[in-house]
Write a structure and sequence with these properties.
5 helices, about 130 residues
Length: about 130
């Protein structure tokens, strides 16, 4: 088995919805914390929250089979997506802990990102999968 198990069809199907889900997750989080207006006025802050998780996903998703042909079934879709997002969360949190981004590491944030980021990705991928099957 190759280190990267990326199926081109699966990548084309899910890459854009995944990015939209991650961006939506960050924007909703900023809104929930009353920082959306401030983020709109200072896009660097929004990017400082978004970039670590996009980088984490870009690293974890291909390594942990989120774009493999195995994600075509519901069980594989859920399992590989959640596993990859948990790893992406750890990478994102590690990047936040460096102090190079607008927010720092917080263990509670780690759990919140794990849960709600997974939900956003699963919803986006589930809808995409259902549309593609039609």
């Amino acid at each position: 088995m190759a280190l990267l198990d990326v199926d081109r069809r699966t990548l084309r199907l899910f890459a854009l919805p995944d990015l939209v889900a991650i961006v939506a997750f960050v924007i909703v989080g900023e809104y929930q914390h009353g920082r959306l207006a401030a983020s709109a006025a200072n896009p660097r802050h929004l990017l400082g929250v978004l970039v670590p998780f996009v980088v984490g996903w870009a690293i974890a998703a291909p390594l942990l089979r989120a774009y493999s042909a195995r994600t075509n079934g519901l069980r594989g879709l859920v399992g590989w997506t959640v596993l990859a997002w948990l790893a992406a969360d750890v990478v994102g949190q590690a990047l936040l802990a460096t102090g190079a981004f607008s927010i720092g590491f917080d263990p509670v944030f780690l759990v919140v990102v794990a849960i709600f980021g997974s939900l956003f990705l699963l919803i986006a991928r589930g809808v995409t999968h259902a549309i593609a099957r039609r």
